[in-house]
Specification:
With 172 residues, this protein is mainly α. The protein has seven helices and four strands; from the N terminus they run ααββαβαβααα. Helix 4 links the parallel strand 3 and strand 4.
């Protein structure tokens, strides 16, 4: 299908943007320093100038302690906490068991749902924001926000299994 010079393309793009903007929630109050996770999603290999410089030996008994291949999970988690959680720094901290339950309560909510009003959100006492809580409980957060491999099973992600050669990359 040839789209160059197509008059309806501009109209289609305008309609698409209008509809997607209307469907999207407001991110006006979102702050990167406050509303994101304090830990990183790392790659399996180390890279230097686009080339792999180190391989992990998968047969080693002691595996490196890294949180890898979870970009989808982390993005979804940030959105879920933004929409369904609130923080109360003036209240006493929770024990790990209760914190685990509340993290799961937030991350089990479908991210496409509308944000909850403040009085219906899951409360995390003792912390000012998601970044502070995830810094204090990194491992607990990582164990409870979801698995990375599930993203490979989503039908929309099928394209990550295709080999994209140099010709394809030059076109894209």
């Amino acid at each position: 299908m040839r789209l160059k010079g197509c008059r309806s393309c501009g109209c289609f793009a305008a309609i698409f943007l209008a509809v997607s903007s209307a469907q999207a929630g407001s991110a006006a109050g979102f702050s990167y320093s406050r509303d994101t996770l304090a830990f990183a999603n790392t790659t399996v290999f180390a890279y230097e100038q686009g080339k792999i410089v180190s391989h992990h030996n998968f047969f080693e008994r002691k595996k490196p302690d890294r949180y890898t291949r979870r970009c989808f999970v982390m993005t979804r988690t940030v959105e879920q906490f933004y929409k369904f959680a609130r923080f109360d720094p003036n209240s006493p901290l929770l024990d790990e068991s209760e914190l685990h339950k509340r993290i799961r309560a937030v991350t089990r909510k479908p991210p496409w749902h509308d944000p909850l009003p403040p009085e219906k959100r899951v409360v995390f006492p003792g912390y000012r924001n998601l970044r502070e809580m995830s810094q204090a409980h990194t491992r607990l957060m990582q164990r409870n926000i979801g698995l990375g491999w599930v993203a490979y099973l989503r039908p929309g992600n099928f394209r990550m299994f295709y080999l994209h050669n140099r010709t394809y990359q030059e076109k894209a």
